[in-house]
Amino acid sequence: VNWGSSTQALSYVSALDNALELTTVEDHVKNFRPQCIVLTGEPMTRPALLDISHAFTKNSGLCICCEVFVGPRKLCVKEMNSGMAKKQAWLIKNKIKAFYAAVAADCFRDGVRSLLQASGLGRMKPNTLVIGYKRNWKKAPLTEIENYVGIIHDAFDFEIGVVIVRISQGFDISQVLQVQDELEKLEQERLALEATLKDNECEEGSRGIRGLFKKAGKLNITKPTRKKDGSINTIQSMHVGEFNQKLVEASAQFKKKQGKGTIDVWWLFDDGGLTLLIPYILTLRKKWKDCKLRIYVGGKINRIEEEKIAMASLLSKFRIKFADIHIIGDINVKPNKESWKVFEEMIEPYRLHESCKDLTTAEKLKRETPWKITDAELEAVKEKSCRQVRLNELLQEHSRAANLLVLSLPVARKGSISDLLYMAWLEILTKNLPPVLLVRGNHKNVLTFYS
Amino acid sequence: VNWGSSTQALSYVSALDNALELTTVEDHVKNFRPQCIVLTGEPMTRPALLDISHAFTKNSGLCICCEVFVGPRKLCVKEMNSGMAKKQAWLIKNKIKAFYAAVAADCFRDGVRSLLQASGLGRMKPNTLVIGYKRNWKKAPLTEIENYVGIIHDAFDFEIGVVIVRISQGFDISQVLQVQDELEKLEQERLALEATLKDNECEEGSRGIRGLFKKAGKLNITKPTRKKDGSINTIQSMHVGEFNQKLVEASAQFKKKQGKGTIDVWWLFDDGGLTLLIPYILTLRKKWKDCKLRIYVGGKINRIEEEKIAMASLLSKFRIKFADIHIIGDINVKPNKESWKVFEEMIEPYRLHESCKDLTTAEKLKRETPWKITDAELEAVKEKSCRQVRLNELLQEHSRAANLLVLSLPVARKGSISDLLYMAWLEILTKNLPPVLLVRGNHKNVLTFYS
Q1: Most buried among A378, B46, B289, B331, by the most CB within 10 A?
Q2: What local confidence, expressed as pLDDT, does residue B170 receive?
């Protein structure tokens, strides 16, 4: 049996041995690393999501780009396996230290569940889920929302942290990629055509005919280019062109060096410290090193200074360099009428309004549209809803100009609120802001000040 | 932030980089390696299954010991995560180059599906599923059978090969381990007791009292030992004692060097070559190097010699050293009455016998017991059933004395036969034989003679 080149065999065995050796290292907060499942789908389709994840995993953790194929199994498996090598190669080619992993499943959530639980090898296994913010939640089919929120709950159940990334333009550029592919195809056709024409010219002796060929050549050469503009025009006529331009720029925003500025961390719950660790790792990167950390925490209005000092000493124990600490004393005050109104209008279409109906109709509606937000529920979590609205006010006030916002992800017990209300929370919380990471660790400590 | 010792950090990064580097190696039959998901449950509970898998994965492939926790998720995850480190440590301690992986799932099959699809990292991902033979299939609840057969189908769907291992005594020694634990506890108690007594003696000056302590000591020392025998007796009185003895011996059989003898390979379908590759790898191991390969293949009775020559040249192209090739010309003849009778008696309890009933009752029965074997089905696959029975006859005739049997796993299209009939096939095929590996590759070639 031919075992392939000895170098290959060697690199395999050493990779395996290294991985095995790792398993002997005792688990300890000291050697926690962000090991991320990033739901990029096809890796090339969400560059910004991949770039930001790579920024805090590269060399200090693990990054697995994951894709879930939903549909008839045999077909999915075929498609999945045929693309494997190509997609992994793309990552390598683009110098992204990440693995590509894919599963075929009956539904998206099942697939992600498999990846969360089973992917990785020994110590190199995920402890953090990174997903893009679902910006189309208002229009998306309900099952999609259920899957999306369900995945977040699954992650917590498996003791895996969650990072939701939002950039205003969204991540998915597959549309653009399609157009680019088409253009490339055309370009290649054109070149092929030119080539053949040249050949013919060389072979061809007689002037007259050569002239003829030249004409033909020009014709053939110009036709595709016209087509080229054409295909772009059609896009623009679809009012996608300018949008695509913005999208492409946005999708590259984490590739370039981040200028002087701040990463604002709003650490509102003790989640073990992931919310603090990720921005800290970012500041160690070349691209982000000109960004200063500003830490925002809640506190009692009447003891701002004490809390500030306490926090400062904690951070210095963690050896986290920070530019500034702000203790926010007025998180729990009511949001102002306008912003509350915005929230109410946002959820209006999903409300059941059962209280202003007689019991039987109310019950009937509940049965028919169980996904709707009931008045009872809304009342029960009113305080939390207010908090999200209020927080956005504060974020607008303090962090509007930050390069990046890192913010504790609000969570609600499973089943305690409807998926749509939860999405509304995330929406209002992160509305009109710079790029946001909503972070929630798995409550295991990831920071330590023992040495 | 404290990143743990620099050596740890280094080993992590190098493990990761190695794993990443591997992904750049292009996939090729030349660098196929058996990368196995082994369903050991808790690694220590099925030593023989783990040992044999380790024998053909160690240094030449990947071995992942897998456990599925079925039940309420939160509980499962808790139990799972708490045991993780301990079980991996056990593998390392016992010099087994294997990873421990576990998932929590609603049912066993779901869990295995996750592991088959998602486990591993880059190139180090499973391509072969190794499971023990389900010897209790006759008594086991139907859902267990469904899961078991279902898992085999899932593996093929995911283009993953399957190896089913059968040893007459079975693999699971958890019972025995429990008893051992108890005994150890008792032993420790005893030692603790002795120790305290000794201390007392030292402190204690006066003869008389020391004497008294001595007595007490004896008493206390003897009591546990009596208990010790006691707990063994109880086991024996449960008629498990001798059985356990056999079990323990059987479970260690692949740990010791295999004497002079043969590994008989019955290669009955071209499955890509896994059926040939695994025994070949075994012969490269110290433990197995005194075992010669004997290859058995089907052929036309009237051209035995030609087929023999053809096979020989193929094997030599693969550079597989073999002691002997047998072309079996009479696989497809009818089995003799006795052995067929054995098979019929085996399936009798699961048969529906609808044909000897009127249509309505037949339909009714079908609805009530859909898992039963219908006459129609039995007739449809009669030939295949005969084949299994006949093969066992041949195996008895040629390979009864082999140290190990490697045999193509019979497969039937999903839904084409009932799970119970399939189990009956496996049962009759591997009945009263030395340890058997039923192997079926994923039909991708794993052997090559290009250089």
Answers
A1: B46
A2: 87
Main-chain phi, psi angles of B15, to 5 degrees: -60, -45
Q: Note whether B2 contacts A448, CB cutoff 8 Å.
A: yes
Burial class, B423, CB count within 10 angstroms (exposed 0-12 / middle 13-18 / buried 19+): buried
Residues 6+ apart with CB under 8 A from B391: B266, B268, B331, B407, B429
pLDDT per residue as tens digits for the range A185-231: 888 888 888 888 777 666 555 454 454 445 444 444 433 343 444 44
- A429 part of a folded domain: yes
Task: Provide the shortest C-alpha distance from residue A246 to chain B (in Å).
Answer: 33
Tokens of A2: 């031919």
A299: domain range?
261-440
Residues in chain A: 451
Q: Do A451 and B4 touch (CB under 8 A)?
A: no
Do B12 and A31 contact (CB within 8 A), yes or no?
A: yes
* CA pair distance B318, B226, nearest whole angstrom: 61
Confidence of residue A407 (pLDDT cuts 50, 70, 90): very high
Query: Phi and psi at residue B112, in whole multiples of 5°?
Result: -65, -40
* pLDDT, mean over chain A: 85
Query: Which tokens in the block code for residue A438?
Result: 């909503």
Burial of A169 (0-12, 13-18, 19+ CB in 10 A): middle
pLDDT surpasses 70 at A1: no
Cβ-based contacts of A124 with chain B (< 8 Å): 15-16, 19, 121
Based on its alpha-carbon atoms, the radius of gyration of chain A, rounded to whole angstroms, reads 27
Tell me how far apart the alpha carbons of residues B4 and A451 are, in angstroms, rounded to a whole number: 8
Domain count, chain B: 3
Decide if A31 and B12 are in contact by the 8 Å CB cutoff. yes
User: Cβ(A246)–Cβ(A169) under 8 Å?
Assistant: yes
| Residue B446: inside a domain | no
Cβ separation B99–A122 shorter than 8 A? yes
| Per-residue pLDDT reduced to its tens digit, B50-74 | 999 999 998 888 999 999 999 999 8
Quote the pLDDT of residue A304: 86
Task: Check if the beta carbon of residue B227 is closer than 8 Å to that of residue B367.
Answer: no
Q: Which two tokens stand for residue A61?
A: 């953790």
pLDDT in tens, A24-66: 776 666 678 899 999 999 999 999 999 999 999 988 889 999 9
From the CB of residue A113, how many other CB atoms can be counted at a distance below 10 Å? Answer: 26
Q: Classify the C-alpha dihedral A265-A271-A274-A280 as positive or negative.
A: positive
| Mean pLDDT score of chain B | 85
Cα→Cα distances B269→A1, A250, A344, B61, B408, Å: 19, 55, 67, 24, 6
Strands (E), B223-364: 261-266, 291-298, 324-328
Give the model confidence (pLDDT) of A298-315 as tens digits: 888 888 888 888 888 888
Q: Are B20 and A97 within 8 A, CB to CB? A: yes
What distance separates the 2 farthest-apart alpha carbons in chain A?
96
- Type of residue found at A408: S
Instruction: State the average pLDDT over residues A384-401.
Output: 94
How many CB atoms are closer than 10 A to CB B30? 19
Whole-angstrom distance, CA of residue B427 vs CA of residue B425:
5
Tell whether the model's pLDDT for residue A449 goes beyond 60. Answer: no
How far is A408 from A276, CA to CA, in rounded Å? 10
Which ipTM value was assigned to this complex? 0.83
Residue B410 and residue B389 in one domain: yes
Query: Do B369 and B412 have their domain in common?
Result: yes
| B87: nearest CA partner in chain A | A23
pTM beyond cutoff 0.90: no
The answer on B272 and B201 residing in a single domain is no
The pair phi, psi for residue B439, each rounded to 5°, is -120, 140
Percent of chain A that is helix, strand, coil (3-state, to 5): 55, 15, 30
Q: Which of A251, A280, A313 is the last residue of a domain?
A: A251
Q: Are residues B120 and B55 in the same domain?
A: yes
